[in-house]
Amino acid sequence: MSYAVASALQTAVYHHLLADAAVAALVGTDIYDAIPTGTLPTTYVTLGPELARDKSDMTGAGAQHEFTVSVHTSAAGFGVAKDAAAAICDALVDADLVLSRGHLVALNFYKAQTLRESTGERRIDLKFRARVDDN
Fold it and tell me: What's the domain of life for this entry (predicted)?
């Protein structure tokens, strides 16, 4: 197994979301790996947990990364969050990401979960699966 492509994958996902016009129209540049201190925007996106599994074969090292992108909002209802989640899915599914190490074989939507936090915030956790090779 190789986890060596993990950072390159996260960086590519982050920059791809920042560059996507539909995502930017809904959340601007409020996409975070670590939530900043201070007052947060009404709607923002976080890059979250990841699970990697070995997918190496006789041709080389590889892995499947299951990663989470979360939409957070304090707006009433789930509408704003669902619109942002849809834009993120549109941007990432089958995206042709260029990685600084290795290469992306496939990027697919896996599942989503909507949550209402005790603070009143709404959150949608989007899970994606990326198959990467380290060459």
Answer: Bacteria
